[in-house]
Design goal:
With 337 residues, the protein is of the alpha+beta class. It is built from six helices and 19 strands.
């Protein structure tokens, strides 16, 4: 929006544990147990490189790193699934004849394959750098957003003493409790990760065997994540720590020390498609949300699409546009199902 000449202000209270801040930042071109291509991946990969490089240039940082995912097969079924998919389409999947290549660093029984190109986004660096830029330009209000102080009018919105044409909610799981958007079919899930210290592993790789090991900083590595559909809070659990510590001890050949355990709630969606666009009744209220585990992949693409929609009235992709939920978004309160 700024690039298009729009004036903006961001309202955000800094919180230590949000889904973005504790995510590993992996952009993986394949997904799920059946190793299918990530939705729209060919289009997204080209776009992602351009957008992240532009952000790097703007902020004077390096936050996008090329990587290869080394996929150690955790079961015979997963090995067969990988080999079958690679035989059908080898665009991103590679098999190896060097089955023993990683024996010095890992224990594994069923071999491995690799996924590339993949990318890693340094989210702590990117988020802190962008936050500093907003602060320097006096475009950041560091406070909790109080929705009861938002007044929606025909010609715009007013929040406290700020008048604006539009407001966009990019607040992750908080939107599931926002009375304008809570009817959207969110499917929140909880993710946990450990931060460990260990001897340096081979650089330029993400290692995966059910759980993933991703370089975090210096001799620290991120290990995760979980997908918990039933949870009562956003706090780390003893069960995840114990299970992950056991799996890691079986797999990793280096001694390691757990130095942190983090958790947060992801704003996933029932149909695994994002929520982008404007409320059908309150057309000054927008949303950019519902990316689930694919925030680094989908976020830049749909942020640009939403900005183009606002500034040039370009159409939003129908699969992402929240207008597809017009019926439930315009349902009167208390009208049931």
């Amino acid at each position: 929006l700024e690039k298009a000449g729009q004036s903006i202000v961001v309202i955000d209270q800094s919180k230590p544990f949000t889904a973005s801040k504790i995510a590993a930042g992996i952009i993986n071109p394949v997904t799920g147990r059946r190793m299918v291509k990530t939705w729209m991946i060919e289009e997204l990969l080209n776009f992602i490189k351009i957008e992240y490089r532009a952000l790097e240039s703007e902020l004077g940082i390096q936050c996008l790193e090329n990587t290869t995912v080394i996929d150690f097969f955790p079961s015979v079924q997963m090995r067969q699934s990988f080999l079958k998919r690679q035989g059908e389409d080898d665009q991103f999947l590679q098999v190896t004849k060097e089955e023993n290549y990683w024996r010095n660093e890992f224990n594994y029984e069923l071999g491995w394959g690799s996924v590339s190109p993949a990318y890693l986004v340094d989210l702590p660096l990117l988020l802190s750098s962008y936050r500093n830029k907003l602060k320097q330009n006096k475009k950041l209000l560091e406070e909790n957003f109080e929705i009861e102080r938002l007044f929606v009018k025909n010609d715009g919105v007013q929040y406290k003493d700020i008048r604006s044409n539009k407001i966009i909610f990019c607040d992750g799981i908080e939107s599931a409790n926002n009375h304008y958007f809570k009817n959207l079919p969110f499917a929140p899930n909880k993710g946990e990760a450990l931060i460990i210290e260990t001897s340096p592993l081979s650089s330029g790789f993400v290692f995966k065997k059910g759980i993933s090991i991703v370089h975090w900083e210096k001799d620290k590595y991120w290990v995760g994540s979980s997908y918990e559909w039933e949870f009562s809070d956003d706090l780390p659990t003893k069960e995840f720590r114990e299970r992950t510590e056991y799996l890691l001890g079986q797999w990793l050949r280096h001694p390691f020390k757990i130095i942190d355990h983090v958790a947060s709630i992801r704003p996933a969606t029932l149909e695994r498609r994002p929520f982008v666009g404007f409320h059908p009744q309150h057309t000054n209220l927008g949303i950019l949300n519902g990316m689930g585990t694919k925030g680094c992949t989908l976020g830049p693409y749909f942020a640009k699409q939403l900005a183009d929609h606002i500034t040039s009235n370009k159409p939003l992709m129908k699969e992402a546009d929240i207008y597809r939920f017009k019926g439930i978004l315009t349902r009167p309160p208390g009208s049931g199902h």
